[in-house]
Amino acid sequence: KVVYSPGDIILRRDDVGEEMYFILRGEADVLADLDGEVLSRKTVGDFFGEVSLVFPRQPRSAWIRAFSFCVLAKLTRENLSRALIAYPDDEEKMIE
What we know:
Layout (H helix, E strand, L loop, with lengths): L1 E3 L4 E3 L7 E7 L2 E4 L6 E5 L4 E2 L2 H4 L8 E4 L3 E7 H10 L1 H8 L1
Antiparallel strand pairs: 1-8, 2-7, 3-6, 3-8, 4-5, 4-7
Helix pairs in contact: 2-3
């Protein structure tokens, strides 16, 4: 678990990611530009950053900024790879 305060930047657009996040508590805003309008708001149960796990070296497409205090679960590419070794059929389902 990781915790962010209101206004903290969680993901930066154009960075190459190694992890995705699940919101356990709080809310986070999705922005195309750091000083631009909010495109959407992620809430409890939502996730973001998944493209980085499925397509390595793909840059992030948006900024994610904590709107409130956020408690997030983080899934790294390494942990996902270990899980997919145990369940190889699920990797193809994920990409579809």
